[in-house]
Amino acid sequence: MYSNVRVAYLLDWKFSPASGVGKKIVDQIESWNRFGLEVTLFINCPAEQEDEWAKLSFHVRTYTYTSYRSRLNARKESLQQIIDERFEIIYTRFGILSPFTIRKMKKIPTILELNTKGLLEYKRRSLLLYFYACVTSKIILNNAVAVCAITSEVANEATRIAGNEINYKVFPNSINLKRFTIFLPQKNERPKLVFVGTPGLVWHGIDRLIELARSLFEFDFYIIGPKQILDRPSNVKFIGELYDDDLNNFLSSMDIAISSLALDRNQMTEGSPIKTRLYLALGLPVIIGYTDAGIGSSSKYIFKIAPNEWPLNQERVDDLRNFVKKFKGRRVSHKDLFSIDSDSIEKMRADFIIETAHAKRIFSR
Predict the structure, then answer these.
(1) What is the third-level CATH fold of 177-340?
(2) Which residues pair with 8 in a beta bridge?
């Protein structure tokens, strides 16, 4: 194995390191540095987020913006700095990449991380973005030296778009279990179920969650993040947004967690949501609406609802009721979560990055 591979993690992100994706990236970089890589984060972020990114424990270069124009300049400046300093590999999340970035991918080997399938989300946001993504996706995928996909389904879609075989491996999202303490279960009179999400994301399936609450009126449902829905039963409570210790402390009082219930609206049946990892790291059993790439659907602490089961018939409602009653007052052990621990997944991803860098060294001789 080669060590001392210099990796530039290139990120354009408008949220802080405390966000779900932010924490994932921090965990990744800290893990890779332990496993022999030398990673520097090049982050394009709003000016008000700069201090939070700059104070992280590893090497960080910040490039701030206050407008669309200055954001383009930040992207160009950060990438040029990576090239000038002769990093061996760029690692970046697949998305709307600028023409400048796409051209430079031929100059410096780039590994793409793919976190979703298809282009529907861009279409929901903007027809212009959707058109640009359709035009550039094939070029981007064929210019990359490797792809890290969160599921086989995502990797297969990328191969279809590329029109060629691509160098890829599947790595589900991971979480650093050492950061979390499993709280003692609460003795709630009524079972408490919780969902954590972001406003306006259709694949969360808040409407399906409301449907569950109507069928399971003896349980209380708490929704953190998404905006309130007025037409809801009285056993559904919207909490607003919570972060860090406030979020973890709230989750500690829950019995069961709920993950994304409508990934099929993004034409996906497989997933690897960060929220699921957070729930499990805190010891909460989870209800999911997809096949998790890192967790077997037969796991005793997972209750899976397939997309074609909606609306649930009475038998499935009863199955879910029994699952909640079984796990009320119980916690999932970290011993059962090796398959999602960053020590496991990020070690394999770091090896893949090193192998890719090694191959490029040999090829370029």
Answers:
(1) Rossmann fold (3.40.50)
(2) 40, 90
Say which amino acid occupies 73.
N
H-assigned helices in the chain: 20-34, 50-54, 68-84, 99-104, 120-125, 127-143, 152-162, 206-215, 244-251, 274-281, 314-327, 342-364
Residues 6 or more apart whose CB falls under 8 angstroms from that of 195 comprise 204, 206, 209, 221, 222, 223, 224, 226, 257, 258, 259
pLDDT in tens, 92-119: 999 888 888 998 888 899 999 999 886 7
Whole-angstrom distance, CA of residue 248 vs CA of residue 18: 12
5-175+341-364 against 177-340: fold identical: yes
Helix axes 152-162, 127-143, angle to 10 degrees: 90
Distance CA 356, CA 5 (A): 10
This model's pTM is above 0.85:
yes
The pLDDT tens digits of the residues spanning 24-81 come to 999 999 999 999 999 999 999 999 999 999 999 999 999 999 998 999 999 999 999 9
Measured at the CA of 34, the angle between CA 78 and CA 30, to 5 degrees, comes to 50
What are the extents of the domains in the chain? Answer: 5-175+341-364, 177-340
Contact in structure between 58 and 39 (CB atoms under 8 Å): yes
Q: Which CATH class is domain 5-175+341-364?
A: alpha beta
